[in-house]
Amino acid sequence: MRVIVVGLGAWGAHIAWRLARRGADVVGLDRHAPPHGFGSSGGATRMFRTACLEHPDLVQVARRSDELWRELADRSGRRLRVSSGGMLLGPADGPVVTGARQAAQRHGLPVEVLDAAATRRRFRGHATLPEDHLAVFEPEAALLDVDQVISGALEQARAAGARLLTGAGVQAVERRAGGGVRVEWVGQESSATGVLEADVLVLAAGVGNAGLLAPLAPELVEAAGWRTVAMPMTFLRVGDPDGLSIGDLPVFMRELEDGRVVWGHGVLPGADPSVVKLGVEAATPVPPGSGVPDLTSHDWAPVLEQGPLTFPGVRAEPVSGTMCRYDRTRDGQFVIGPVDHERLVWVAGGCNAHGFKHSAGIGDAVAEWLVDGYTTMPVDAFRPDRFADAVVGG
Ligand SMILES: Cc1cc2nc3c(=O)[nH]c(=O)nc-3n(C[C@H](O)[C@H](O)[C@H](O)COP(=O)(O)OP(=O)(O)OC[C@H]3O[C@@H](n4cnc5c(N)ncnc54)[C@H](O)[C@@H]3O)c2cc1C
Asked: Is 86-139+227-328 in CATH node 3.40.50.2000?
């Protein structure tokens, strides 16, 4: 089976790897040279957890990712993760804590539920946690090194025979009347152009998905409410003489009393001890086809105000930051599977800002589904055809 994969970021790199490992003849294209910060995977680190409050079926996908990354680390010698444990915190009856507890109960996940006093004693970074808030601590949660994960998956894809073209922006995709697909690409830093044909096309282009899909499946793009937004990814100075280590502030997501969510982690071993990652969840719409927006003082304002109030020693002092774009859907869930009845064009997108931890599991599910005709992974809830009659073809 000849497969073209468009987009070689977090999801596309793993799709290419897993497809090539299953014997598919894979060509992957990317407009940039991943890993990079122009899409959804910028900003160095991502949280891995199996307490998936976003959808119960994702617990198994995260577990499969973990298995595959252990294999990838063994094969490549790369250090993909820092085993920090991870925390989901907030009001006892708020969505973050209740969602995490439900996922843990349903799947028997090994988590500890800590009251505010125990949390404050054990984790200095959360010394301001209000009395009626809880923490769900998952010891197996971790921090993923984005560049190592994506580079490792691309390396394995190549080793398994995939041909990967970078600096190749896909301009047009087409389902061919007689079967198969056709893709036109243009060089981003050269005058090169090319046309590729294959049996099947997989779109894993992140914020590029909706634009590429629009001519093929406009009803799907519309029904899914597919759109691009950007969120600040920010690093602040910590003035505390001892800093805030990853042990004091393991990777976390915390719901505040006003319902806003903050996330981040303490200082990694070997990193600058005066810098922590902290962000306040705030998505700004980005017009279709535009580039990465600038990170303005308006974007910095919430974290500069909230950081020092919530985390001991953190100063209202920006160190570095960027806007990170991602694709969102109406129901907040991924869109994974064929977009036409002939199963010529597939999509893996709609990451909704929680997809990194699932990228290896999703890559494996898509590869299995394409090559074997079915997948044992629970990804049915994310099929494009959940949007009624939005899939195309007859
Ligand atoms: C601020 C923020 C924090 C987050 N935190 C977490 C977290 O802690 N844990 C977690 O699990 N997830 C997190 N996420 C989500 C996670 O980062 C994304 O789900 C993941 O990076 C999505 O990967 P992707 O492959 O879909 O997109 P990308 O990595 O952006 O890959 C898409 C690729 O497609 C290429 N492309 C686009 N258009 C074209 C075209 N026309 N032709 C060729 N190539 C093209 C791009 O160059 C890019 O390389 C966060 C997201 C954000 C924004």
From this structure: no
Phi-psi region of 298 (alpha: psi -120 to 50; beta: other; left: phi over 0): alpha
Q: Answer whether 50 contacts ligand 1 (Cβ < 6 A).
A: no
Statement: 2-49+146-225+330-386 belongs to CATH 3.90.580.10: no
| Location of structure tokens 């009393």 | 257
Say if residue 115 is exposed, middle or buried (CB neighbours under 10 Å; 0-12, 13-18, 19+). Answer: middle
Look up tokens 């899409």; give the residue. 39
Q: Which atom of ligand 1 is nearest to the CA of 355?
A: 19
Predicted confidence band of residue 390 (pLDDT cuts 50, 70, 90): low
Measured distance CA(391)–CA(394) in Å, rounded: 9
- The residues facing 232 across adjacent strands are 323
Cα of 95 vs centre of ligand 1, distance in Å, is: 24
Which residue, among 31, 2, 22, 16, has the nearest Cα to 209 in the 3D structure?
31
Could you give the dihedral angle defined by the CA atoms of residues 294, 205, 382 and 67, in that order, rounded to the nearest 10 degrees? -100
Per residue in 18-70, pLDDT (tens digit) is 999 999 999 999 999 999 999 999 999 999 999 999 999 999 999 999 999 99
41 lines ligand 1 (CB under 6 A): yes
Please tell me if the CB atom of residue 169 comes closer than 6 angstroms to any atom of ligand 1: yes
- Residue 81 near residue 66, CB atoms below 8 Å: no
Is 11's C-beta closer than 6 angstroms to any atom of ligand 1?
yes
Rounded Cα distance, 194 and 170, in Å? 9
Structure-derived torsion over alpha carbons of residues 161, 167, 171, 175, reported in degrees to the nearest 10: 0
**Is this prediction's pTM over 0.90?**
yes
Could you give the CA distance from residue 46 to residue 364 in angstroms, rounded to a whole number?
20
309/243 Cα distance (integer angstroms)? 16
Q: What is the pLDDT of residue 177?
A: 84
Annotated domain spans of the chain: 2-49+146-225+330-386, 86-139+227-328
User: Quick one: tokens of 277?
Assistant: 């990652």
Please indicate whether the domains covering 2-49+146-225+330-386 and 86-139+227-328 agree at the CATH topology level: no
Choose the residue to mutate in 6, 30, 278, 303 for probing ligand 1, maximizing ligand atoms within 8 Å of C-beta: 30
The pair of structure tokens assigned to 150 is: 């994506």
